[in-house]
Amino acid sequence: MTDSKKTEKYVPEKECRRDFPSGIGAVSLYIHIPFCLKKCRYCDFLSGPQTQQQRERYVQALVREIRGQKDCPPGTPVDTVFFGGGTPSVLTMDQIGRILDAARENFSFLPDAEISLEMNPGTADPGKLLAFRQAGINRLSIGVQSMHDEELRLLGRIHSAEQAREAFVMARDAGFDNISIDLMSALPGQTFDSWADSLRQAVEWKPEHISAYSLIIEPGTPFFDLFEKGKLPALPDEETDREMYHYTRRFLAQHGYARYEISNYALPGRACRHNCGYWTGHPYLGLGIGAASYVNGTRFSNTADLEDYIQKMAVYGPAGQPSMEGIRREIHVLTRQEKMEEFMFLGLRMTEGVSVADFTARFKKTLDEVYGDVIRGHIAKGLIERSEDGLRLTERGTDLSNYVMSDYLM
Q1: Under a CB-based contact definition with an 8 Å cutoff, are residues 177 and 129 in contact?
Q2: Are 188 and 233 in contact (CB under 8 A)?
Q3: Nearest alpha-carbon partner for 294 in 334, 322, 327
Q4: In angstroms, how far is CA 40 from the centroid of its own chain?
Q5: What is the pLDDT of residues 143-178, one digit of tens each?
Q6: 315 in helix, strand or coil?
Q7: Which parts of 201-295 are beta strand (E)?
Q8: 49 Cβ partners below 8 Å, 6+ apart?
Q9: What is the pTM of this model?
Q10: Would 122 disulfide with which of 79, 159, 198, 384, CB 3.0-4.6 Å?
């Protein structure tokens, strides 16, 4: 949706805000750590192994970006922070601490701010986890992926199932009472029974949150190359994939985990606030290479080149702050129509769906005025249903969610 004609017109407004009932404006921070010990065979994220020296150079550049960013004014309230990657837990506690210190100096963290960090079980260490918790990180997202070693080896993970369990115990011992674990279904060679067993073991751990994703084989990954050459073990067929998904929802519900988004389940009150912001149009500022932002109705991202990012962040302007020149990429000011489209196709990802009242308040038109024909067609096909205050996907609509959501793009 990038509009090159609008690129040069982008000027950050004086505030980043979302209006809450209290009247407080806030923004979420996404901090990208593009490092891992070993690239997984299915991963197409902007990440890879780097030396300790390169990691330190990057952290220094990241701290400079935080201090020099001009998209949000000093003291902007922050309600969530998410360290994503890559594997943020490969950094030292000193490095994570410096990043958090810079963020706290330049923003105003709300007292109940959710501060999440992604962790690979292969990087878990009792001392580091305790230090993370003492630094203010209050939510961990642990990339378990599978409870079966043969599946983990095929994925190229650096940990075993037992190491994942030990990492979870370490996190609990360090004082973390808000832990999410990631699991992946529809893996090559995976059976319905092995997936069901991974879920069974997961609920025995009693994490507060479970993300259950179906594998997508992305171009440019080793998995894609193996798949193209016919050398990848057979993937579960479409019927088994759907059976896995429906079983996941039923099984986790029986154990107290409510599905609140297509692939995410949580105990009461433990939905990931940061990710909920993405689906509800909450402003977020991305920091680090390739990090995407949505601020003041404008989407933009940082350069994805590590060395380019480090070098540009070393250039200072006349005021003694990093110039930020050339860091931003793909700047696009959303039109009113695009904002309505995003409201629909992002909001419908959530189990609660989209709110009629919120749509009307934002756009001064009702849902039926803008999407009446599409809505009536989807209701007639059993793809969406009316809720108390809006629209939500039915179970059939969830199975066909990509098709449903595409109908709201004009």
Answers
A1: no
A2: yes
A3: 334
A4: 18
A5: 999 999 999 999 999 999 999 999 999 999 999 999
A6: coil
A7: 209-214, 258-261, 264-266, 284-287, 292-295
A8: 35, 36, 37, 38, 39
A9: 0.90
A10: 159
